[in-house]
UniProtKB/TrEMBL annotation:
InterPro entries, per database record: NAD(P)-bd_dom (IPR016040), NAD(P)-bd_dom_sf (IPR036291)
Domain NAD(P)-binding: 9-158
Source species: Streptomyces lutosisoli
Domain of life (superkingdom): Bacteria
Listed Pfam families: NAD_binding_10 (PF13460)
Gene3D superfamilies linked: NAD(P)-binding Rossmann-like Domain (3.40.50.720)
Protein's recorded name: NAD(P)H-binding protein
Region ranges (Disordered): 117-136
PANTHER family tied to this protein: FLAVIN REDUCTASE-RELATED, UPF0659 PROTEIN YMR090W
C-alpha cells in the first residue's frame, strides 16, 4: 500500500501482532494508543507511534491524515471511564475515527477493518433483536470499504492474520478483499 496504515490499539495483544505483520510486508504503520511506555516496550523501532485516544477526536487527526487503511483493534480494558461501558466506548471511538477519516480525501478508501468484540451479541441474538455489535453499524453506514472481523474464540494470532488478510486478500496477494464480515 502506498499510504500508511493506522492501527488503533496497535500496542495491545492483537494490535502489536497486526503491526508486526504489516511491517513485515513492508508497510508503513502508524500506531495510535495512550501510552508511550507501552509503545516503547512492545513495538518494533520503525513503527510510528502517535499518542491518541479514540474518545478525543482531535488526537486522531494527525495520525489518520493520509492513511490508506485503518485497523481498529482497540479494547477499552478494565480501567475505562465514560458512559455506556466498554461497548459504548468502542462505539463512540469507531464513530470518532470514521468522522475524522471522512473529513479527509475518501475517494476509493481508506479501507476500515474493525475487530468486533467476541462478547458481542451472537448471530442468533442479532437476528432476534436486530442489534449488531458495537461500532459495526457505523462502519457499514460510513460508505468506506470495510471488513468486520468477529473473532469468536480465535487466538490473537488468528485475529491478527484475519486483519491483514482483510487488507490484502491473503498471503502473497495485494488485492483488497471485498466488503464482508469474517466470523
Ligand atoms: N487477546 C485475545 O486473545 C483476543 C482474541 C480474540 C479477539 N480479541 C479481541 O481483539 C480486540 C483487542 O484485544 P487485545 O487483547 O489486543 O486488547 P488489549 O491487549 O487490551 O489492547 C487494547 C488496545 O487498545 C488500546 N486502547 C484502549 N483504550 C483506548 C483508547 N481510549 N484510545 C485509544 N486506544 C485505546 C490500548 O492501548 P492504551 O491502553 O495504551 O491506550 C491497547 O493498545 C478486542 O476486541 C478483543 O476482544 C482478543
Amino acid at each position: 500500500m502506498k499510504s500508511p496504515i493506522a492501527v488503533i490499539g496497535g500496542t495491545g495483544g492483537v494490535g502489536r501482532l497486526v503491526t508486526r505483520k504489516l511491517m513485515a510486508r513492508g508497510e508503513t504503520v502508524r500506531v495510535i494508543g495512550r501510552a508511550t511506555l507501552r509503545a516503547r516496550r512492545h513495538l518494533p523501532p520503525l513503527a510510528q507511534f502517535f499518542l491518541g485516544d479514540v474518545r478525543e477526536p482531535e488526537t486522531l487527526r494527525t495520525p489518520l491524515h493520509g492513511c490508506g487503511a485503518v485497523v481498529y483493534v482497540m479494547e477499552p480494558g478494565p480501567g475505562f471511564r465514560g458512559s455506556g461501558g466498554p461497548a459504548g466506548i468502542l462505539e463512540s471511538g469507531v464513530v470518532n475515527t470514521l468522522d475524522t477519516l471522512l473529513r479527509g480525501p475518501v475517494s476509493g478508501g481508506p479501507r476500515f477493518v474493525l475487530v468486533s468484540r467476541p462478547d458481542s451479541p451472537t448471530h442468533t441474538q442479532e437476528r432476534l433483536t436486530g442489534r449488531h455489535p458495537a461500532g459495526e453499524d457505523a462502519v457499514r453506514a460510513s460508505g468506506l470499504p470495510y471488513t468486520v472481523v468477529r473473532p469468536g474464540r480465535r487466538t490473537e494470532h488468528d485475529v491478527a492474520e484475519a486483519c491483514v488478510q482483510a487488507l490484502f486478500g491473503g498471503p502473497g496477494t495485494r488485492q483488497p478483499a471485498p466488503d464482508r464480515a469474517l466470523a
